[in-house]
Design brief:
Radius of gyration: 20 Å
Strand content: 5-15%
Number of helices: 9
Helix content: 25-40%
Shape: elongated
Structural class: mainly alpha
Order of helices and strands: HHHHHHHHEEEHEE
Length: 273
């Protein structure tokens, strides 16, 4: 009802997807607009919203020093494909590699979306954007409102995603990504590059960013990519990796037998009591 397959906002000749959400700067600007909206609509939750960026700041000191192209936030050939669905486009944005593609049938089932309309501003328009439903109402919105709808669609998809990955189909999709190490590897030396799983430290949106969980040492780490480190942890939740490993017991590795022993000139450092 709100956008075309090409990504433009329908009705008002609005900006394209890449213009609205293409870069890290645009995402920050749009999220700031959403923050302002949430503060106005729900003052009691402003504390949680304010605390979200601080986690990203702390995480930035631990990210890898890798060279990444700043020219595009869309991976693969999806960047120029006007026929791609919004869901495919979104999951192929740089930094969104942790997301799997939610089946449209799942999104269209109102039962699966129970309770989300009260959490996401511009809910109906955001849902139409996700489902590629065209609308002629785009010219009714200001530029700021268009940005809010784009950000609301990202938020809504994340809240749908956290439910979907707990289903059989969702876990199957995440299993394929896990096998390909799409979520990254454990940085701990004695874990020998163990594949990790995404996890949130809270189920409340905008509380903390996503982390990666190592099933071998059973500890949390920051994602290596600065793009992935800005994703809301609530879009993966606190339950997923543990339920995933219960469902796929053969994927759970043995705990590492080695631990690092501090030494000085070959002698173990005495631990003070």
């Amino acid at each position: 009802m709100y956008k075309g397959r090409s990504g433009g906002i329908m009705g008002g000749g609005g900006s394209s997807r890449s213009e609205l959400l293409g870069g890290a700067t645009d995402r920050k600007r749009i999220n700031e607009a959403l923050d302002k909206h949430l503060k106005k609509s729900s003052p009691s939750t402003s504390k949680d919203v304010d605390s979200f960026p601080s986690t990203s700041t702390a995480k930035s000191h631990l990210q890898e020093e890798e060279v990444e192209s700043e020219g595009s936030d869309v991976s693969g050939s999806e960047a120029g494909d006007e026929d791609t669905s919004w869901i495919s486009w979104f999951c192929n944005l740089r930094g969104n590699e942790f997301f799997c593609e939610v089946d449209e049938d799942y999104v269209q089932d109102d039962f699966n979306l129970c309770g989300l309309s009260g959490q996401v501003p511009y809910y109906d328009y955001a849902l139409d954007l996700i489902l590629d439903v065209e609308s002629s109402n785009g010219d009714m919105f200001t530029e700021e409102q268009n940005e809010l709808v784009e950000s609301a669609a990202e938020m809504l998809y994340g809240l749908i995603h956290v439910r979907y990955i707990l289903t059989t189909k969702g876990m199957a999709a995440m299993l394929e990504k896990y096998k390909k190490c799409d979520f990254g590897r454990c940085p701990r030396v004695f874990c020998s590059g163990q594949a990790c799983l995404p996890v949130g430290q809270s189920d409340i949106p905008r509380s903390s960013t996503v982390k990666i969980y190592c099933p071998k040492c059973e500890d949390l780490y920051y994602p290596r990519s600065k793009y992935q480190g800005n994703i809301d942890g609530a879009y993966f939740g606190t339950t997923f990796p543990h339920l995933f490993l219960m469902a796929h017991g053969n994927m759970k590795p043995q705990k590492p037998s080695q631990t690092y022993v501090p030494k000085i000139f070959g002698f173990k450092v005495h631990k003070k009591q």
